[in-house]
Amino acid sequence: MPSIGESSTGKLPSSKDFTKYLNKKSIIRRPDPNGNISKYGSNSSDMISLGLGHPSPDLFPFSKFGFNLAEYDNETDKIKESTFGEEISIGTKTAENSSVEPMGIVLQYGDGVGLRSLVKFFKEHVDQVHKPKYEDWTTVLTVGSTEGFDKICELFLEIGDSVIIDEFTYINAIITLRGHCANFVTVEKDDEGMIPEALDRVCTNWTGERPLRLIYLIPNGQNPTGTTMGIKRRQDIYQICQKHDLIIAEDDPYCFLQFGGLPVVEPSEETEEYFSKLPGVKGTLPSLMSMDVDGRVLRLDTVSKILAPSLRTGWVSGQKKLVDIIQSHIETSSSRANGVSSGMISRLFNDHWGHDGFEKHIIFLQKQYLSRRNVLLKAVEKYLGGMATYTLPDCGMFLWLELNLPPSVASEPGIMDKIVDSMVENNVLLIPGSQSSPAIDAESVKDAPYLRATFARAEKKDMPIAIERLAQVLEKYGCKR
């Protein structure tokens, strides 16, 4: 098998054929035939179409929609409500010097690829950042990463298939897999996430009726544990997936919120020199897609963590044969990513920010999340001490706490429910780790001594108060600082 980054010729190779892994639905799925008809109308201004049942744009009850960019107040860490930034709009005609489609296209039916100007931007981004190592790759828009992962499951899974995941992972991924009647094969983790040797052992010893074919990974700022895979870990995981011929669903919503290994410091030490070491986009850790020489990685990206969640816009990138089937499924489910959101984002990325402006925005976000992480971790050091064990998060928005409960307390049935109830009574909320477990028997994990804290939402001034309240609760259950 080719090694990571290896090319026997100067030309990029084609991807490996994974059609043997497609399920029955994917094998028979066909593209929307209207997509082939649509191309004729776009090739000639003289074409008179009596074909497709597309409403006339002249009957849309909108002539323009737009929004203003926010202005951020560094003193208050809030948006300035009394002032508005630059206006960005889409009208009935293409804006001057713009590559973004006008309203008649943005609001119209379209194929499952999505708004072409935004797809073009994301493909440029994938090419620049991930540098795919095979020729036949492509990108389609999705209604966020959750839809993207659901479409990947639709590609491969039959009822009763088994999927490899972390022992604690993103709850919506678990729910999605349950909806596909999948079984879970969990693999141990350490401070860098999934352990390669454990993954190899699971695959080597597999005796299930059907082969393992899909693994789900969050390599950066894993939800809920906050772990980030180092480069060597990523290489080892990828090579084991090659060895056992696994398809990789690389879900990477936190990839842009990397902190570059910067230490926890006091606010007074957060100088420009300190922040200058942030990775931005260009310095982020290499993705699994960037190591993929086979076309076995289907990469999920989203704007939820870098713009806003309810824009419901993401993108899937990977080998064309597989992504084309995802496109066909989109065309008979969500139809395509929301036109209004796609148009707004495309205007922002293509016409106002460009790739350089996108880089500046990511550095801004990295500063904000790093500063929030520092405040939370300083409070943990001050108030919790030895009450909990944790790994320093170097990406994302989560801190995973393992509670150091006395053995007599830890063995008490229902102890975590009691701790959560006590937290609520003391006006502090963290998520119990059991909610991120795929265990079929909920009773077996409900008292797992883990809590997930996030530094994404609360104001910095409130985080120490929250951790002090948590410490008061844990003291009641015998934890010692």
Automatic annotation (TrEMBL):
Check the record and name the Gene3D superfamilies matching this protein: Type I PLP-dependent aspartate aminotransferase-like (Major domain)
Cofactor(s) required for function per UniProt: pyridoxal 5'-phosphate
| Record keywords | Aminotransferase, Pyridoxal phosphate, Transferase
Top-rank taxon = Eukaryota
- Which InterPro entries does the protein's record reference? Aminotransferase_I/II_large, Class-I_PLP-dep_aminotransf, PyrdxlP-dep_Trfase, PyrdxlP-dep_Trfase_major
Among the GO molecular function terms of this UniProt record, one is:
pyridoxal phosphate binding
Single Gene Ontology BP annotation: alpha-amino acid metabolic process
Which intervals hold domain Aminotransferase class I/classII large? 100-470
What protein family is recorded? Answer: Belongs to the class-I pyridoxal-phosphate-dependent aminotransferase family.
Spell out the protein name for this chain.
Aminotransferase class I/classII large domain-containing protein
Native organism is Furculomyces boomerangus
The organism's taxonomy opens as: Eukaryota, Fungi, Fungi incertae sedis, Zoopagomycota, Kickxellomycotina
